[in-house]
Every structure is written in structure tokens, then in C-alpha cells.
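Lab notebook page, bench 4
Experiment: in silico fold of construct C2
Operator: M.H.
Input chain length: 486 residues
Purpose: comparison with the prior construct
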Amino acid sequence: MTNILIIDDEHEIGNFFSHLLTRKGYHVTVANSGKEAINTINMQNFHLAMIDIKLPDANGLTLLKHLKRQLPTCKAIIMTGFSTIKTAVEAIKLGADNYIEKPFDNIDELEGKIDELLENNVTDTKKEIVQLAKKTGLIIGTNTSMNELITMAYKIAQKNVTVLIEGETGTGKEVLARFIHQASNRTEQSFIGVNCGALAESLLESELFGHEKGAFTGASQQRKGLFEIANNGTLFLDEVAEASHAIQVKLLRVLETREFMRVGGNSPMQTNTRIIAASHANLYEAVKQKKFREDLLYRLDVVKLEIPPLRKRKEDIPLLVHHLLDKQNSNHLRFSDEAMSLMQNYEWFGNIRELVNVITRAITLADGETTIITPNYLPIKLTSTIEQVSPSQNLKSPIKSTAYDHDFEAYLNQWVMEILQMWKNDSNVDFEEILNQIKLFEDQIGKAFVTKALRKTLGNRKEAAKHLKISTRKLRYLLNEKGTDL
């Protein structure tokens, strides 16, 4: 028989669950205090425990920890009021399988959650996570931090809460957002993403909220915004820290009231859109610097997920490489042990986005020549011993210019030789390959000149931008959006 433990100091709650679950054939034990709960857990075995987050003599999280130590396989549901949702999320991090909010408005839904949790074992859950990850292109790998992150994302996906994803540029924040959408009850609805730093304020406002005909010059007809289009679905706000203060105010209103107005409109509109926001910048630091509204941060940071950078999950690089080869229909190619070792020793400050660029380049060069990709097909930055400097790291002393300049000159010579080889090739020319080579060359040139400017200014980005005759915003774009490993 399935044993269920109810831990709640309200006798009415205990009686309610005892009647509801006994009628379904479960054996129910009720504990009305923390002390009674601990004694019960020590003496009996349970398949499911439902724990109130607040008891007069105990904290629900403390009881959860004790439960998981004594009965590791016991499922756990945290019972919470709306004001303690963040605490409930912490409970999930500690091993809780779900949480439910008081009061219990929908009894059928409540029964369904309990039955589903008892019917599904750990293997089934892991299998579903793997299937959803494969569907969205999310590579879980073996890294402990990444596995814990994905498990947490899966658990909160079905909750109607706002999620904030933080992580360095190129770590795959949008892929994680898509995974959450697919694991949620909104999977049949729209998932729409927008980069808040890619559009000017007026364009972003119209994109998010829509506009009425004649609202501004060029508004020849009414246009729906993303909050309207993504209603009942998921809206992914990438680089939300780049949104202007005026846009931040409007976003705050949507999160608080679920209402918005089109540009030039007079009537508020309702939206049931779930918001997943992302930022490569630390929003708490942005608040300290008066670049981001504190009240908006608290509205966004209901559940925060931090994606580890690739350099902290290097054991997953072979799996990622295999996935990328498969994605580009290049399973006939493989990387030599030496090439794979170089990739695992590289710091990847551009993260998975940079890895994708390196793999694409190697496939392009090796295709038709070999089936084994050796270090000769890797960029010089992977094979060089030159010190790698993170984009977030301030340069307090210059890199030795002789070493760097030599490395850059070698790259230029190699690139010219490769293009000349294509030029002299008498067979058909793959023009798309040439364009890809030009793009890679553009990225490396940009990286080189930005690095040189940062060396000259000892890491002062404002001075470096001035030296390059570009805006600091453009410099940030070169550092953060192009996968540059500065």
C-alpha cells in the first residue's frame, strides 16, 4: 500500500487530505508539528510527504532535508502561500518534487498532481527530461551543475512563474528557455523570443506592445505586439538589461497587472503570457549601477537559473562536438584525440556559440579532404599558448605585444593561404563556404583590433572605444555578441 505523510499544523488541512486520499486507497498519516513529523519519519517508510512550509515549531525546509536524509526515495510536495513562492522554489532545489499553493482552489488538479507524482518513478522523469532536451537541442551531458539546473528547470516549468536565466553570452539561454516552454503546460502555444538590445527603444516598444494606426509616422495600420501574439504562450526577453528605463517601466506594469496598452492606444489589454527573461549581465550589479530598476528585478527574479559557462563543464565537450557534427550532417567526420584534447583545454570564453563557430570552420575546411579533423583544421587561438583573457576580466597589465602580434600575423597568413587554395582549385567552388570563411575572418579581425585597443588602454573600455572611433555600445557588442574570447 502507498503510504503518504501529511505535515501541517492546521487540523482541517490534515483531515481534508486524510479523507481525500484514504478514499483513493492510500494509507495516510498526519503530523501536526515538526517534532511529531521527525519522529514519524524516523519510524515509518513513506512514498510521498506533503509538507507545510511554515510550522510553529519547525521550518518546512528543515523537515524536507531530514526527510531526504532518512527516506531518499520519498517524493515531496511543499505546501505554501503565494507570499512564500521563492521559498518553495528553494525547496525544489533541496529535492522537493513540486509545490502547491494554499488555498487549494482546484481539487481535481490537486488530486491529479498527487497521482501523477506517485505513478511516475525517477526513471520516467529522467526519460522525459532527456526527450524534451533532445527535442529542443539542449545537451545535458554529465556535468553535475548542468544536470541539477535542467532538473530544476523541468520542475518549475509547469508552474506559472516568471523565470530569470543568467549566464555568459553564448551559453544557450534561449535553448534553456525553449526547454522550459516545452516542459510546461503551454507547449501547444507560441514561444516567441526578442533581443531587447537589438532594437531601438521606439521599435522595441512597438514590437512588445503593438501600435494603433497613426500612432507615429509610418504606422499605416494597426499592429499586434508580442504580448498579444504570445498570449497563453511564452515570451522570451533576451538581454533584458539592455532595455531602456522607459521600457522597463512598461514591463513592470505587465508583470504586476497583466495589462498593457498598444502605442497610441487608450484601452488596456490583458495578457496571459509567461515571461522568461535572460541576461548575460548580473542584474543585481546593474541595479547597483542604476542601470536596471530594482522593482523590475524582483518581479523577474521569481526563479533564477544560472547556466554554467562551457569552461566549467569541459567534460561535456566531446558530447557537444558529436551533437554539432550530427546537426550539420557530418557524422563521417571525427576529431582526432589531439584535436579533442586541445578543445577541452581551451577556455571557451565565447562558450557554446564559439564552439559552434570552431566546429563549423573545421567541417568546412576538412570536408572533401579527410575524415579525421586534426589540430591543423582548428583556429590558431586553440593551438597557440598565448594567454586567454575573459571578456569580463579587466586587463590590469598589457599582454606581451610581440607574442600576440606574431599570433595574429600567423592567423592572417593561414587565412590567405586557405583562400588562395580555394582560388586555385579547378573544381567547382563552394561559394557558401567562401562567405563563411569571410565571416570568420571578420570576427577574428574585430577581435584582434579590440584586443589591441584594450591592451593599449589597460582594459579601459571607454578609452578603447574612443581609440577605435566606435561607441561603447558597439564595443560591448563586439565583446559579447560575436563570441570574442577577450
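Observations: The CA atoms of residues 285 and 366 lie 44 Å apart. Residues 389-404, 481-486 have pLDDT under 50 and may be disordered.
Next step: discuss at group meeting.
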